[in-house]
């Protein structure tokens, strides 16, 4: 009896650190800048404008054994937008579009995850942008992970989604049809904490 | 004729003054109009191109004007002591606002490190770029200081008319006629 209890305790003790090692918290590597928040939007239906947000932070929890329990949250400094053209950036950040003076941060907080195959799935969450919060779905993929050469443990992902700007009260009514939506692309590595 | 004297303004100062006046009022009107243009307006890209190009030339003219003014003499001011002090301060304010509006405009267009093309003739390089929120902050400063400059310019104009019509001073005439600088 005593032997059995001891064995059970020993097994439990051995399992606990293992399960903890599985579900881990990661911090998005913005310091080493292995992280990007980019967007792509049509210009008049002729070509695309590519841009990125350069300042952001975030963290996530990832458990390969229990993917549904994974979660991620990010905070983006809207003012850090860069499309390689100062006057265009100023215009996009003005009250005509993102109104960054009034709404300086955009946030994303995941609410769920559904696996659709090996290393991929659909992440759902709340995106707050331009003072409006909307539920969005993002197709995400686990790219890779493991020990890095400098003594840390990393996991890397990418995800993309299409946003309809009118959903976020961003007025694109004077722009042609192809400019009503944009493609948001996010990729990052997280360092296990 | 070319240089200023204690009596009146020379040709160089007169030409710089009036071309600056036309450029400042023109740039203000153009800037106000162009910032409200719709994306599909045919002047949407052309108006800022003119605004930047003329702005850079006005910047160069202003530097030349300040050097010319500092290096030579300038006509004596009429009126009471307090009136002369107000005139000095007013002129100092006009110069300071003009330079600040020009610098802030330059900082908008060069915020991403790219220079400003002047009518396609040459390019002015970006000296200060990538400051946090540079284009947006410089844009706000540019707008409010431009309003202040136009406000002070209106005061300047009213003061000149008052001197001319009421006090019967020759300060307006001497900014038009360079021959007055040579009168004994």
Uncertain runs of chain B are none
**C-alpha-based Rg of chain A, rounded:** 20 Å
- Supply the CATH superfamily name of chain A: Lipid/polyisoprenoid-binding, YceI-like
Characterize the overall form of chain A: elongated
Estimate the helix proportion of chain B, in percent: 55-70%
Enter the CATH topology name of chain A: Lipocalin
**Number of DSSP strands of chain A?**
11
| Greatest contact between two chains | A-B, 14 and 17 residues
Calculate the mean pLDDT score of chain A and round it. Answer: 90
Which assembly state applies to the chains in this document?
heterodimer
How would you spell out the order of helices and strands of chain B? HHHEEHH
Short key terms for the protein model shown above:
heterodimer, A: 193 residues, alpha+beta, Lipocalin, 8-stranded antiparallel β-barrel, 2 helices, 11 strands, elongated, B: 184 residues, mainly alpha, Fumarate Reductase Cytochrome B subunit, two-stranded antiparallel ribbon, 62% helix
Commentary on this structure:
By secondary structure, chain A is α+β, with helices and mostly antiparallel strands. In chain A, 15% of the residues lie in helices and 52% in strands. Chain A has a single domain, classed as Lipocalin (Beta Barrel), CATH 2.40.128. Chain A is built from 2 helices and 11 strands. In chain A, strands 1-4-5-7-8-9-10-11 form an 8-stranded antiparallel β-barrel. The two termini of chain A are 40 Å apart. Mean pLDDT of chain A is 90; it is low at 16-21. With 184 residues, chain B is mostly helical. Chain B has helices at 11-34, 46-71, 81-109, 134-165, 171-174, and strands at 116-118, 122-124. In chain B, helix 1 (11-34) packs antiparallel against helix 2 (46-71), helix 2 crosses helix 3 (81-109) and helix 3 (81-109) runs antiparallel to helix 4. The relative contact order of chain B is 0.17. The chains are: A alpha+beta (193), B mainly alpha (184). Chain A binds chain B through residues 79, 82, 84-87, 89-90, 93-94, 100-101, 174-175, and chain B through 38-40, 48, 108-112, 114, 129, 132-136, 139.
